[in-house]
Specification:
The chain is of the alpha/beta class and about 900 residues long. It folds into five domains: about 40-95 and about 125-140 and about 195-275, Rossmann fold (3-Layer(aba) Sandwich); about 285-510, P-loop containing nucleotide triphosphate hydrolases (Rossmann fold), CATH 3.40.50.300; about 515-580; about 580-730, no CATH class; about 750-884, no CATH class. Helices cover about 50% and strands about 5% of the residues. It contains 37 helices and 14 strands.
Length: about 900
């Protein structure tokens, strides 16, 4: 699983025992560690290429034996390994399928080449190719192919259909050599049209897998044609071309040899890209993970179109950020000047906050992200800390946002991490007010620029209401003159209204570009096909549609690329452009996604167990989007496919990797993958459309209280929370379970199960061995117990019972090495409580024991000090599901 592999960013490195040279350079190790964590680690996702209907045995062997080993190796380097395999066998439509499912298979068969070439590009520069004696499907030399006259795809062969679709959708070069096999087209795209040092070719020798030629023929799939002389000649020429280009080629005879070659080759790739220098210690280092997310978010906003409006806004932001800042000769980058800035009228001297506002979709986040990159490059010595609300689940909670700024300021100013134990306070209000006090003190130390984008999405999770988070009543009436605070929000939001009432706020309104040329440039930036776009022939269309914001233009461009494979794109565009609001546009697009990529099935359940989503709005696409919407931190692709299987999409109704790949092509810009492999909604407008149209929710999921499950209108949302409970009760990876399971138990009102989970021996044991729980980890643990206390559950009693169970049950092996008796643990827990049974001291008593009593080092060692992979697993899986 992708998310299992990023344990690195939850843990802190330690020096390898026995290496005295490294022990003597602790400071250097800490510095290199910090630099390593702050550098985004891209996943290694090679595309798997081989002739159609062949190499299935090799694919299965690699997927089950070799790729998991490579993923484990990547996990120790802070990334993950995931091979992308769009095997053709998945496209064989079973007999007697419903019409909607038959349509999906038909569309996939005709666009398979285009889909594969897309994923070759997505996976670049990583590529794995296996070749044997088969060449794959191709058009014979004597087969006439009248591409220009093709009007009905049903009259074309499967290969001709694939050539037609690929040529019309971004790959016109395939017609230059129409007699190549589909496999050779993939190789041309990966290795001959591009250059990469991470491409490997594995040739199966004549004695393939120690089978005779007759056995090979018998093993070939029934639909595969026999190997003829022309095919032998073509595959021979292809291999010769690969070798003559100097590409790395390996030869193998059996599965064992292939596995060894691939493991060795790709271990070298992993070592080259992400060299291992330090070992891992169990420390929850979630803050660095959060920093990583914001870096990644700015990278994904690079498709930015410069306009007069954006230039003007850049100048205003720059002038505001530099106001009252003394610049030395080395502050600005070489060759830069402030001439353009000086053209802006003088700003008031008492304004410490700049509020950038505009309608949803006008391009605020993209502009802010690009301005941050521009400013950092121009003024590298100035302290700037950006935070994009909504880029992760953690980035929306106001307390986590404030803590993020505090920690970043502490690190940038002093090179250390702040360890503030504010959760040991009794009062919810006092905790938040203390955090705000620390924040105010932090921004007063040295000049700094804070950027907070999307403040209308702020929420409160513990001790703070969502309204208080958004109205900024917690922010003092005046800020330190050292700090410049830049925020962005929607013009109609509560945040905008509240901040505009402050005397220290300057407002800047961002207006969607009105000139036709800028709109065309935005559209073309996201629509790169060499065909006329619908606006090229008539600029009148743009003049008649003044409400086409950058978001709408981006949506239309992306949809035009994808919908044309399934329907008349111009008719589709006409329908889209009739929509006035972004919400209406998203609802129409959701309908297309469901019709073109999805199918339904009839679950064998009682009617009361089924969830009706309304006519025309059901199917696996709708279910996947709903699951993603109600998840706490996002879901990985593998998790979503397993969840769909749980919901009943299996056997003939199974959502294969190929079906999923086609859907992801259409949604990639809007449902993006975080660095840890979890998918999330890139834009709040799509999340809102899913919540409203597919879930039927009135209140946004992330702002819902713990008691919304009682409202019958939230039945569908509660259903998906319960599905996710059942799923994560079966998982064993601690961090993913901790991120998701208690959240869904809370949102479903499963109080007994939540109490059992939090106080279970396995969870108590794992949390106790974390040397330095992150703010997020602590905040949520206290929050869940606070919710339980409100419903009448006793935290101290639950933990003491858990300790008693741990004493009676000898399942924890590390107890054999523990020199401190469990009786002392119980006494310590009792002694650690305030007279009123303070839940906070109890929550962390086991962790405090592990940190303050060296003789209890065994408490920190999962299962006796196993590997990181072992430590990240819950000791007893059944303890998680015992409440289910």
């Amino acid at each position: 699983m992708a998310t299992e592999t990023l344990k690195l960013l939850y843990f802190e490195y330690k020096v390898v025992p026995g290496q005295s040279e490294m022990n003597q350079k602790t400071n250097e190790n800490v510095e290199s560690y910090a630099q390593f964590l702050l550098k985004p680690q891209k996943p290694i996702k090679p595309y798997i290429c081989s002739p159609l209907n062949d190499f299935q045995e090799e694919r299965d062997f690699l997927a089950n034996n070799i790729f998991p080993q490579l993923n484990d190796l990547c996990s120790s380097r802070g990334t993950y390994f995931k091979a992308v395999d769009l095997s053709w066998s998945a496209l064989k439509a079973p007999k007697s399928l419903p019409s909607d499912l038959l349509r999906q298979y038909s569309c996939l068969r005709s666009q398979h080449l285009k889909l594969c070439l897309d994923y070759v590009n997505i996976c670049f520069p990583f590529f794995i190719c296996m070749l044997g004696q088969t060449y794959g499907d191709f058009l014979p030399d004597n087969s006439p192919f009248m591409f220009a006259k093709a009007t009905d795809l049903s009259n074309l062969s499967s290969v001709e259909q694939n050539l037609y679709i690929a040529a019309k959708n971004g790959y016109p070069w395939v017609l230059e050599n129409p007699n190549c096999s589909l496999t050779e087209f993939e190789i041309i795209q990966a290795a001959f049209l591009k250059e990469s040092q991470f491409q490997y070719f594995y040739f199966r020798t004549g004695a393939t897998l120690l089978k005779t030629l007759d056995e090979q023929k018998e093993d070939r799939l029934p639909s595969a044609p026999p190997i003829n002389e022309e095919e032998k000649l073509r595959i021979g020429k292809l291999k010769a071309k690969i070798i003559s280009k100097g590409l790395p080629v390996r030869f193998y005879r059996d599965l064992h040899e292939l596995g060894e070659l691939i493991f060795n080759d790709w271990s070298v790739v992993i070592e080259k890209l992400y060299p291992a220098t330090l070992m891992i210690e169990n420390i929850d280092y979630k803050h660095s993970f959060e920093h990583f997310y914001h870096e990644e978010f700015t990278e994904k906003c690079q498709q930015f179109v410069i306009s007069k409006e954006s230039n003007r806004t850049f100048e205003i932001l720059e002038r505001f950020a530099l106001k009252d800042v003394e610049l030395d000769s080395n502050t600005a980058a070489a060759g830069s000047s402030l001439d353009s800035v000086l053209r802006i009228s003088s700003l008031p001297t008492d304004k410490s906050i700049l509020l950038l506002s505009g309608e949803r979709g006008c391009g605020k986040s993209t502009l802010i992200a690009n301005w941050v990159n521009y400013f950092k490059e121009k003024y590298p010595s100035m302290l700037m800390i950006p935070h994009f609300v909504g880029s992760t689940c953690e980035s929306s909670d106001i307390m986590s946002v404030i803590h993020y700024f505090i920690t970043e300021l502490q690190h940038k100013n002093y090179g250390t991490q702040l360890e503030t134990d504010v959760l040991n306070e009794d009062s919810d209000v006092l905790i938040f007010s203390l955090l705000v006090d620390v924040f105010i003190a932090s921004i007063s130390l040295k000049p700094c620029i804070l950027v907070l984008d999307g403040i209308e999405e702020l929420i409160g999770i513990y001790g703070v209401s969502g309204q208080k988070a958004k109205d900024f009543s917690w922010l003092p009436s005046s800020l330190s003159p050292h700090c410049k605070f830049i925020m962005s929000t929607v013009s109609s939001s509560l945040s905008h209204k509240s901040l505009c009432a402050r005397p220290d706020v300057r407002t800047v309104e961002l207006i969607s570009p009105g000139d036709e040329e800028t709109k065309l440039n935005i559209f073309r930036r996201h629509f790169s096909f060499p065909i006329p776009d619908p606006f090229h022939q008539s600029r009148q269309a743009l003049r008649k549609k003044p409400n086409l914001s950058p978001l709408k233009l981006t949506i239309l461009a992306n949809e035009l690329k994808e919908c044309r494979i399934y329907r008349n794109e111009f008719q589709c565009m006409r329908e889209y452009m009739k929509m006035v609001s972004v919400q209406e546009l998203w609802e129409l697009i959701l309908k297309r996604w469901i019709e073109d990529y999805s199918w339904t099935f009839k679950p064998k359940k009682a009617k009361s167990d089924a969830v009706s989503s309304g006519e025309g709005w059901d199917g696996w696409v709708a279910d996947a989007l709903c699951l993603l919407c109600v998840s706490h931190c996002g879901l990985a692709e593998e998790e979503l496919l397993q969840l769909l299987d749980m919901l009943g999409y299996r056997n003939h109704y199974k959502v294969t990797p190929v079906h999923w790949a086609a859907f992801r092509n259409a949604t990639r810009l809007w449902v993006q993958e975080k660095p840890d492999g979890l998918l999330y909604f890139q834009h709040q407008s799509l999340r809102s459309a899913v919540e409203h149209k597919l879930l039927g929710a009135i209140t946004p999921v992330r702002e819902s209280s713990s008691y919304t499950f009682r409202n019958p209108a939230n039945y569908k949302k509660t259903h998906f929370h319960q599905v996710l409970i059942r799923y994560f009760q079966q998982q064993s990876t601690f961090w993913r379970v901790y991120q998701e399971l208690p959240w869904h138990m809370k949102m479903s009102g499963c109080w007994a199960e939540l109490c059992d989970f939090l106080s279970s021996p396995s969870i108590t044991d794992f949390i106790s061995k974390i040397q330095n729980p992150s703010f997020w980890t602590r905040l949520h643990l206290v929050h869940y117990w606070n919710v339980l206390l409100e419903t009448g559950y006793d935290a101290s009693g639950a933990y003491l019972l858990s300790v008693a169970e741990m004493k009676a049950d000898q399942c924890h092996k590390m107890r054999k090495r523990c020199t401190l008796s469990v009786l002392f643990v119980v006494q310590y827990c009792r002694g650690g409580l305030h007279p009123d049974g303070n839940r906070y001291s109890l929550t962390f008593c086991l962790g405090d024991l592990a940190r303050t009593h060296p003789e209890m080092s065994g408490l920190r060692d999962a299962g006796g000090g196993g590997s990181v992979q072992e430590a990240d697993r819950l000791p007893e899986e059944d303890e998680i599901s015992k409440g289910g």
